[in-house]
Amino acid sequence: MHPRKLQLCGSLLLATGIAALISPAYAHDPVFGIGPHVLFKDGVELKLGAHVEKSDRRETEYEFEFKYGITGDWVAGASVGDDRSTGKGPSDSGRAATTLSTKYRFWRNDQFAAQESAALFGKVILDDADTPRNRVTEPDGNDYILGLAYGYEGRKWYRWASVRHRFNADTRANTERPDVWLVDIVGGIRFFPTGYYEPDWVWMLELNGEIVDSANPLINGNRVRLGGDSWFLSPGLMWTYRNIAIKTGVQLPVYDTLAGDQEPDDYRAVLELEWHL
């Protein structure tokens, strides 16, 4: 074989080998934020998750989510779950709100042993939760989330950024529920690069912000101040083996300017199991 052709074949084999090695890096999003990851065409993702939020009450949600790759750049999904709440006030439990979501990757830049991409994100949170209703706090309609996500994923280093806006419906008592901006900045590192047939560990640190619009609704005859900022520093871990992943992390509050008598969160935690088919 001609030396130049031999060199070209060697380069292609090397690139293919590196792509095979880094394929686990392209499989998942951050723990608390969102990334631009989508499924391959006709791909399926199944996820089981537990989410805990602790303030003056402990809110626990168990979730099952199904996603389907419509194309190689477009994915859609749906989730159902169960809510449990204990602590200050009466305890309650019931079916969580159903969610419908979609993500479209509109930009992708493949590099040597790395990939950059960006995607648009949308979610509808249906008003079908089956928990004890409170006209003052429960929504009277669907909530909507729209967002934009960016990601860089390589053999060792990761970075993600996203911004989302949540449009909240008013309550059943026509009380305003203010909209929320969600901001996520995430860095990740794989300390020891591994192959597809070996367990893979990626450590992440996220900065998650929630910026709630100001509102002063009338509740039970009293004016209540709502709104303010909350920021969380969130260490997380993503463990993958072939097409299975476990993600876990904890959100720790570092700063807030909540208006009125709103109770800040003590912590939030998540544990998720994903299976790609």
Overall pLDDT level: 86
Describe the sheet with the most strands.
Answer: 12 strands, antiparallel, barrel
Helix/strand/pairing category: mainly beta
How many domains in all?
1
CATH class membership:
Mainly Beta
Provide the helix percentage: under 10%
According to CATH, the fold-level topology is Porin
The helix-strand sequence is HEEEEEEEEEEEEEEE
Low-confidence stretches: 2-26
Q: Total number of helical segments?
A: 1
Beta content comes to: over 45%
Please give the CATH architecture: Beta Barrel
Oligomer: single chain
End-to-end separation in angstroms reads: 40 Å
Number-wise, the strands total 15
Main sheet strand line-up: 1-2-3-5-6-7-8-9-10-13-14-15
Write the CATH homologous superfamily. monomeric porin ompg
Which keywords apply here?
277 residues; Porin; twelve-stranded antiparallel β-barrel; two-stranded antiparallel sheet; 15 strands; globular; disordered N terminus
